[in-house]
Amino acid sequence: MELCFHLLFLLCGVVAVAFVLFISIYLIVSGLPAIREIGLVNFLLGKTWAPTATTVEPSYGILPFILTSVYGTAGAVVIGVPIGLMTAIFLAKVAPPKAARVIKTAVELLAGIPSVVYGLVGMIVLVPAIRRLFGLSSGACLLAAIVVLAIMILPSIINVSETALRAVPREYEEASLALGATEIETCFRVSLPAAGSGVATAVVLGVGRAIGEAMAIIMVSGNVANMPGLFTSVRFLTTAIASEMSYAAYGSLQRNALYSIGLVLFLFIMLINVLLNVFLKKRKED
Fold first, then answer.
1. Which residue(s) pair with 243 in the sheet?
2. How far is it, in rounded angstroms, from Cα 163 to Cα 206?
3. pLDDT, tens only, 173-194
4. Does the pLDDT value for residue 55 go beyond 80?
5. Local structure of residue 92 (DSSP, 8 states)
6. How many H-runs (helices) and E-runs (strands) does the chain carry?
7. Residues 60, 42: contact at Cβ < 8 Å?
8. CA distance 225 to 235
């Protein structure tokens, strides 16, 4: 029986690794032909995306998509991480038990809302509000996408950060309080640094959620292949794939270029995970 369970666990681990390998191989095999045909520099640094142009030569530059994804994710992290982290500290260390239960339930409900609902609410409420507030012709812009992404990453950041903060040994905090530190000083100077690896993991999960979101963003960002601007309609890497894959002809350069965009997006996420592991390893060594 022990041997059977060991084999079962080993099989599950192998399947998980195999899925990642299969996805990686498929994206590489499907994405490299378009990059070779278009040219790596033209593909990554080109500013024009017009695969269906007829009067001029089609263009396959994805620099606007890359910059938009970077700016949108960075903006969501700048807004969402402080709010999520402060909420996690409040739930784990400050809030009364009854208030903590209510807020925890609300956070769990926020995590269960489908992304299309976020996009629908953003399209109906947020986009018109931005249009009226800033006097724009259209409120579907990068700012609306950043706000929606910031809200969407909150549950991941709050839940993981709270778990990490609750795992900090009580002896650390008692020693700090015994030396004369206040509870708030103890939270920020003892508990938070001790839970640093868990908080970093929460941030990376939030970044992965933000950079990989498509459905909600396509409804509030305008989905236009412009260079990024805060009040400009833009298109992300994910929304470029979602909006064009359905009508791109099978075997065409446009479809292969969309696979290449998926490869670039996959490499972004892998790079973020690698940087996190290097950062955590260095922190443990220090």
1. none
2. 15
3. 888 888 888 888 888 888 888 8
4. no
5. I
6. 14, 2
7. yes
8. 5
